[in-house]
Amino acid sequence: MSEVLRALPGNPSPTGENTVGDEALSMSLDADYALGEVGGWTVVSDPRVQVAWDSGVCDSLSAEGGRVLAFVVDSVSTTYAFFWHEDGRRVRVAAYVEGEPAELVGEPLAEETDLPEPWSEDFVPEIAHRLTGAWNADLFETSFALHRKSV
Length: 151
Known about the structure:
Layout: H1 2-7, E1 13-20, H2 21-24, E2 33-38, E3 41-45, H3 55-61, E4 67-74, E5 79-86, E6 89-97, E7 100-105, H4 123-132, E8 143-148
Antiparallel strand pairs: 1-8, 2-3, 2-8, 4-5, 5-6, 6-7
């Protein structure tokens, strides 16, 4: 987890507070980041959606055989997206706003076959589970450590 913290913008430091995934994954989270672990994957919640759209952070974290899945779920604006990185490069981006493609990069992954349509908040946990094998209801009960930017 320390490697992930070093890669995040703003030199984040722990606040000493924890929360459960349900709150940690909310866009209204009152912290810059929340970090937890589910199924061997480090999960970073970024309510200001800085990391998902910044391919540099995800490329760095996926270097040397790594894999990174970043995603956006914003039911208010009906924006749903995922970003898949392998070996230091962005392989696939699929972003939908109001059910219409907003950004599609790379070839569709085999895991995208038969995803729930129209794209909704149901698609994100499904693609996350397919790609990582780790996404499940336990994510919402996992403990997340809150972090704030230092700079």
